[in-house]
Structures are given as structure tokens and as C-alpha cells.
Amino acid sequence: MFPTITQIVLIIVIAIIISIVPIRLSKRIGFVVQIGLIVGVMAYLFVKLSFLEAIMLFSIGASTFAYFDIFDRQKYEKRKHLQEKLQATTYVHISQTKEGTRLLIDLLLTVFVSAGGVIFFLFAPETYAVLKFIIVIAFIAVLTKTIERVGNFGSTAMYWLPEEEKLLILSRLQAREYPMSDLKRLENESSPDLLRLHPLFAFLSENADFTSSFQPVLKLSFPGEHLFISPDEIEKWSTLFQSFSSETSVDNETKILPIWHPSVLKRLLWKGYFAIAVKGISAYTGIIFLLIWLDAPPSSIAVFVLFWWLFNLYISDRVLIAATDARRVTEGEAYECAQRIFRQAGMPNVRLLITDSPVYNGFATGMNIGRGTVILTSATMELSTGTIEAILAHEAIHVKKRDVLVNQVARIGIFSLLAGAIYLFFDRIVLLADHPFILMSLIYLLFIFFPLYFSFVAQWTEGRADHLGALLLQDGSQQMADGLRELALAQERDATKSLQYKQVNDEKERKTRSFLARESWFIRVIEFQVLPHPPIYWRIHSLKNYQSWRKARKHWMIARLTESLPDFMRK
Length: 571
Description:
Blueprint: H1 5-20, H2 27-48, H3 51-67, H4 73-88, E1 92-94, H5 100-123, H6 129-155, E2 157-161, E3 166-170, E4 175-179, E5 185-189, H7 194-197, E6 207-209, E7 217-222, E8 225-229, H8 234-242, E9 247-248, H9 262-279, H10 282-293, H11 298-314, H12 316-324, E10 327-328, H13 333-344, E11 351-355, E12 362-365, E13 373-377, H14 385-400, H15 403-424, H16 426-431, H17 436-470, H18 476-502, H19 521-529, H20 536-545, H21 549-562, H22 567-570
Helix pairs in contact: 1-3, 2-3, 3-6, 5-6, 5-10, 9-12, 10-11, 13-14, 14-17, 14-18, 15-17, 17-18, 17-21, 18-20
């Protein structure tokens, strides 16, 4: 039996409370209290409810506990630290108007994206309990972001510290401290661009959105993130912040059209499709519910979902271009480098696009070579020419080997096998309803198997792109390895800066992870068995020690096992 809505809401609330309780306690006492509460809740669930209900509710609670980092200790300590700093120094309050319509449209966009999943959850029969369970887990992440955005809207206050030349932002859920010496670029926008700022519509970007009206917006680019604010005296603050930026375009305000403008509605169509069908699951669940309501046979539902997936794959390049708001590049040094590499790879018609993002990254899209597209971020364009060439060569191989199609076929293939197994052995699976422990064990094994399988396929394509891409470069494997190193150091540098904005700068308490280091056993297991990319330290090692992909893939498969073992077992 699937848990009731009341039970689900209650377990989510309890999980949130458990995550909040230890914040004001010492770390040791807080940890003990948390463990005690978790054990108590588990005992109650498994004593009072059936095993199936208990395990589902426990999973929902665990997911809530994991996702709700908006109430964590580090944010609380940062907020307390900044409040103490305000009492001890001179500051200027930066006023910002709050318009209810701004928040209402934000929430309506969330409802628009989530509607299909909500309808399915509320009205689909219990035979689709597993899909309902997945929907609840997905909505917990949406709920977290929604609470954060509502909290920021209602409680954000901004301050300027002239003596320290810092911008402070405080809300009930966030605390940020931006040294203006880190400011990279300042831009003016006529109003908030909701289709870029809303987290469900954003892709490959880190936006700290503290706007609360439709007034003109200041966009401040810091390492690792873009900050958006809408102060009342925008000319005053533009002039002040401009003096700290080496790059500025405040004299050329970017015009943001209203959401009802025809061109914005077209953009909403594509970005909304991305949010619903790619980033969320409402498109699939909504269509499945419609077919169930029309009493379509299961075979028809399966066929329709398959064709829907093929359609999504066919338009994937357009959807991702729209999602990133990428613009095509047709001139300049990066364009010339790209054309040279694409011609050498035998694909002269591949397009190069740039998306405005503080994240160092690039990716290829398109299900075939004829629709191949490589998208780089604006942050990536700040790296050296040799590194940009290495990234372009890596992505060119993804296009040439049709890796987008390979990864998607691998996904639909395993899901089709699973669906076929359920269809063929449905009667035996039904019998497992009387043995909930075995049934849930099988479901959890699948949840473990899927990430392992997807990671294997993705890491295969990534390793191949490194080694074959190196053949397109003037300095070969050395240039690809150096490019990965520079990329990792840039990511590490910006991650460290971004962490300092959000956490108390206590070197004894915080250790910044090195992107190039070989980490502890548990981290290596995640890197090799779950993530889509092999760890960078191993990718660089592979490029320097194995001259061909044939040799490298053999050692990569061995490394997936050996690097996932505890160090004492390796000896």
C-alpha cells in the first residue's frame, strides 16, 4: 500500500525538524540528538506500519534530510558571523523594493513545471506506486528550492561595508559576503530575466538570485557565480560597484522583455519544455496519466513513451541551446580554433555556441553529426588557448562518436529490458507483494545498479573522448592533460572563492578539496562508480601513461575496481 498524502507530508516535516534541531547545539550533542531522533522515527515507522509503507516513508524522509541543506549549521554560523560584523563596523543599508507579483510569477512557473507530476501523483492508480514514489523524491528537491526562494524574497537585507569594501546579503536562509576585489564584471539589466533566474529553467549556471521586484537589475559576476540584485537606487550602486570591476557594461543596459512578449513566450516554450521533459518528469507522467485516463492498453503506453523519448532525443540540441540561452559564434580566435579542430575531425559543419555562465565547462549535443553542436561557457573562454583547444577536441569526439545518442540508447535499453522483464514475469512479481522485504530489496538493488551502469557507459565515452581528442591537438596527449589540469585548477579556485562567500572563513574547520588529488576511499568509490566522469587525477595519469585508447580503456576498467578498494586492501 502506498503511503497517504498526510503520512508523506508528516514525514517531510519531521525530516526538516530533525535537520534543524542540531544547528544551535554543539556538533557532538547535535549529532547525538539527530541519531536519536532518526532511530526513534525508524522504530515507530517499522512498528506501526507495514514494511512497504515504512521503507517508502523512511526513504522519503532520508531524501528530505539530504536535500534540505538550506538549514545547515554552516549557513547558520555564517549568518551569525555577519550579524556580529554589522554590529562592529560601519555599514550602509541597501534598500530593495519587494513586489508580491514578482514572487507570484516565480511560484506560477514552479506550478507550470510540476503540474504533470502532481496530477499523476494525485490521480494515477496505486499500480503505479513506484513511479509515484519517484515523483515524491523529485518534488522534494523542487520544494527545497521553492522554500529557499520564498524565504529569500521575504527576508533578504543587503548591506555595504565601505571600510572593508564588501557587499553583505542576509536572509533567514542565506548569508553571503562578497569582497568587491573579487568582482569580475558588472552589468545592468532592465528587469529580472525570470527564465534564466528560476532554478528549474536554468542549466549549466550558478545564479544567486536576490531580486524581489521588476525594477532594473544589477548583475555582478564573481568567481563561481553570478549575483543578481535589484536595489532601489540602482544608479548610485552601479557607479560605486563599477569602480571595482575591470570589465563593465553598465552604460549598455540589457533590455529584458516582459514574459508576455511574443519572443519571450517562444523562449518560454522551449525552456519550459526543457524544465518539464528534461530537468523534470512532468511531461512523461502527464502523458502517461492522460493515456491511463483514456484507458489505453499498457502496450500502447509503452510505445508512446518510446516515441516520445525518440522525439526528445531528436530535438535535444534545440532544447539545450534554449535552456542555456547560448549564442552562436561565427568569428574570433575561439571560432577559428574550433573550425580547425572540427575539420581535422572530419566534421566541418559542427556549430560552436557560447553560454553566459560562471561555470568552467563545455558539452556536446545533437543525436547525430549533422546536428552536432558544441557549447562552451563564458568562464571557459577565459582559459588559455591551449586548454580551450583541448576542450573543443574532447567535445568534437563526443559529436563524432555520437556519444549523446550512445548514452541515451544505453538508458532506454536498460529501461526497456526492465519493462520487458516486468511484463514477462508480472505474475511472479505480484506474488512478491506478500514478501515486502524481498520486493523492496529488489527495488533498492535496481536503484544501486542504475547509477553504476550509467556511470560505466558515460565514463567509457569520456575516456575515449580524452584519448581520441588528443589526436586532434598539436601537442597531443600532453596538451589534453595540461588542459585538464588548468580546467581543474580553475574549478578549484572558483569553488574555494564561492565557499568563502557562503561559509565562515575558518581554515581549521574547512578543508578545500583539491580537484587534482587522489581522494579517500569513499570519495574514490563515488568518483569511479557513480559520477559520469572519471576523476581528473586519473584522466591525467591515463593520458600520460597510455598512448592509445585501447590500452587506456583496459587500465580504466581495472582502475574502477582497484581504485574503489580501501587502501589497506590495495597493499
